[in-house]
Specification:
- The structure holds three protein chains of three kinds.
- Chain A is an all-alpha fold.
- Chain A folds into two domains: about 40 residues; about 250 residues, MetI-like fold (Orthogonal Bundle), CATH 1.10.3720.
- Chain A has ten helices and no strands.
- Chain A is globular, with a radius of gyration of 23 Å.
- The model of chain A has no long low-confidence stretch (mean pLDDT about 90).
- Chain B is of the alpha/beta class.
- Chain B has a single domain, classed as P-loop containing nucleotide triphosphate hydrolases (Rossmann fold), CATH 3.40.50.
- Chain B contains ten helices and eleven strands.
- In chain B, helix 3 crosses helix 4 and helix 3 runs parallel beside helix 6.
- By secondary structure, chain C is mostly helical.
- A two-stranded antiparallel sheet of chain C has the order 1-2.
- In chain C, helix 4 runs antiparallel to helix 9, helix 5 packs across helix 7 and helix 11 packs antiparallel against helix 12.
- The model of chain C has no long low-confidence stretch (mean pLDDT about 90).
- The chains are: A mainly alpha, B alpha/beta, C mainly alpha.
- Chains A and C meet through helix 1, helix 3, helix 4, helix 5 and helix 6 of A and helix 2, helix 4, helix 5, helix 6 and helix 7 of C.
Amino acid sequence: MNAKTSNKIAVATLYLIALIVVLILLSLLGYILYNGVPVISWHFLTAPAKAFTAGGGIGIQLFNSFYLLILSMLICFPIALGAAIYLNEYAKQNWVTALIRNAIEILSSLPSVVVGLFGFLLFVVYFGLGFSILSGAIALTFFNLPLLTRTIEDSLSAIPDAQREGGLALGLSRWETVTKIIVPAAVPSIITGVILSAGRVFGEAAALIYTAGQSAPALNFADWNPFNISSPLNPMRPAETLAVHIWKINSEGIMPDAKAISSGSSAVLVIAILLFNFAARFIGRRLYKRLTSS
Amino acid sequence: MLVNPSHAVDPSKERHIELLSDPAHPVILETHDLKVFYGQKEALKDADLQFNEHEITALIGPSGSGKSTFLRSLNRMNDRVAKVTGEINYRGIDINQPDVDIYAMRRQIGMVFQRPNPFAKSIYENIAFALRQRGVTNRHELDDIVESSLKGAALWDQVKDDLNKSALSLSGGQAQRLCIARAIAVKPDILLLDEPASALDPVSTSQLENTLLELKRDYTIIIVTHNMQQASRISEYTAFFNMGRVLEYDTTTNIFTNPQIQITSDYVSGNFG
Amino acid sequence: MDNEKLKRELFRPSKAAKQERRGKFISFSALALIVVAVSAIILFVTMKGLAAFTQNHVNVIDFFTGRDWNPSVKGANGQPEAGALPMITGSFLVTIFSALLATPFAIGTAIFMIEISPKRGAKILQPVTELLVGIPSVVYGFIGLMVVVPTVRTLFGGSGFGILSGTLVLFVMILPTVTSMTADALRSVPRYYREASLALGATQWQTIWRVILRAATPGILTAIVFGMARSFGEALAVQMVIGNAALMPTSLVSPSSTLTSVLTTGMGNTVMGSLQNNVLWSLALVLLLMSLLFNLIIRLIGKKGAMK
């Protein structure tokens, strides 16, 4: 077989493989949306779930997912920002820094179920927080910290050193230079990174089943006092999220419309993550434009 | 003017001058045995130079000759990357010692860099924000300083209606002027300029030179340049650097018309470098 | 300026110096917190994971080689039946099979994306893979339950739950990740490699096979190991389709289990501190050690790649 023929065969094979992969991936997306979207209605998105009968919704789970996301971001973001600043602006190239980077690398590669079990052990049991939003938010923080730290660090290191020198030459401290010049200049890409990691957190379930719990007690959406047990804002209540809900009703669900509910929930999850993706790109681009023009 | 004319015949030796003691232009900054090491590599060897108040001194020499390293050591911008030994006497105070507050020192000795580096903020904020960090909060006072700094850098007329525009929208020449305005807004004593015109077109360059000639009335200026004409047009004194040493230091006129060392003569006439 | 005043100003620590110290401290604390978290996870999981061996005297060798998992029952030798081999086997099988399946597809697709048709690659393939990287694993599990398990049942009989279904779900799940990492590796091969090879008269395929894939090997290996680490650590998607029977897999379509699936189903049904609970933590420890091992392999590949 000469080189030209084998080249043709190889290229044709590559076309075929790419085609198969595209078909798998698109049919996956198509399946989720085709089966799920018809289920989605205002009632479905807002009504509480039903345990034994059909016609329940995912209102509480959806709220829980967002509340947990916001809470964990509030904990995670400042830590990730601080760590990224230290790594990018202060850390010297030595073995301590290398060790710290290793540790972050390890955290990012830990299976999320291990992170969840650790959260269960330490926060739910030892610290007595119980199955609660707070426990879940902390577990998600551990899960999210390494990636968010790396994203922010990348955003900071993309800002040219000339900007740092400019600040230092004015007699500003490195800290002032970083917080007042470098971080603001990196905001567009930091925001993009934060939203993308939010998508990851939003769909996470394994870290949550033993921390935020697998039950969604009824909430009183008229009561916004975080100290009341039925208040949506109470951080000490157990809170099954949408992703956990999908897993739960498929493993042990007994409602007759479990399949429809899961399809709808999956579609909602996927659409939410699509929206996160588009929002990340859109907002990032928008902020960048605002920063560089009038 | 020559301290030791015998050096002139030996090109391997350095030749230094004592500046004319001129009551109108006293020495404001001088270095003694200034050495800079990057790791094991000695990038600058025993630089002894003096700079007069309200005059422009040009540092010239081929790439890698140590002139930028020298300049950046003067306000200790090299602290994190290099080891700097020796004395830097600023108005009689050695500022190359650990207990000097580098942030206060850099407000006296400002710097403008090779590539314009405006911050990703509005034109107004580029100038005002460092002042605000140091406690100037009065809006009128800020407005005044922004205006006078921009006027000092000859940029005011071009941007006075666009102060809230992003500084990143400025042209290269304008951006470099903004950086000068930013540097003089904190009212330094000395301005260090590291090849400030190397990224600019000829028109912007000549405007910049005029601005520097204006600025020397209020500031002492030390400028690194690759451009021989620029050095001869604007400076009173010129130091020639080569291979990490100051080989010749004299009035600009002498350096360009009557250099005492062959290598200086070769460099200023464009035969190498 | 008056020299004394200047001296005072230069030698008095400024506000900036104070801020600098504080800022450095704050940002270092944040970093230290992450390190503490990592250490705490490793420490706690290790301690809990060893308890079964130190407190409950489970035999380490029996744990790794025993084929019977029923910790609440004592076996013939008077020891609790805590043989983790079925789960360890299950985890390794789904990991290896899914990686074997995903590798050719991922490499082929990445080559197509970068070398054959960069335009279509950038327009269709890249956005689709990037999007699918973000799809939650429970969604993959659910689709596995709805599509893969019934298909396997129809084709091979049995319940449809088992290693094969787990493999297929993980294959689709890691495919986008491995593809996009492989594409990154190909993209980082310098352009002049291609040009030099093509200029020597090599065909496009010869260039890809002999030059580009060789140069990108460390990156591609990293992508595959990364995918394997994800497969090994994935819990819910696998748990939903594997059948959850803690038995040695007898065929690819018999109900089985993995370390993660037993952990997710078992942890809620045991009492903290009991033997049944402690052996579960031992499984978690195995999982943790495997994840550290994958991490080490990726690091070694990176080092070797950098040396070349």
